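Example protein was shown:

_____
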Amino acid sequence: NEVIMLRRMTEEHKKHALYLLNGKKPTSYDALYGLPHADGTGGMPKWPSLEDIQLCKEMNYYPSVFVLKPGQFVHINKGRLHCFRKLSPTQLPPSDCHSALRKNVVQEEKLG
């Protein structure tokens, strides 16, 4: 799984972080209180870019961008914004925040 996780923060900062992570664009999906697995309901935000992650770093939201390999686990503390997506062997655009990580994992694990 490809993962993004931010530090604990106030409601106001969470909303601002979500705005930044969505490329400074509004979305109809409520990432704070909506259903987490609302696949097919439309309005899901785009996956963050390197630029979006950099903006969160500049705001001291301490984004962690990483890949969980099979058998690895992560503890997500209460109140931390996070998102997951399945890693696939397809190449990502260079602007995607997981582009380099995915490329390395695909090579190391011989997935491609």
In short: Helices lie at 11-21, 50-58, 99-108. The mean pLDDT is 91. The two ends are 16 Å apart (CA to CA). Strands lie at 2-8, 64-67, 80-85.
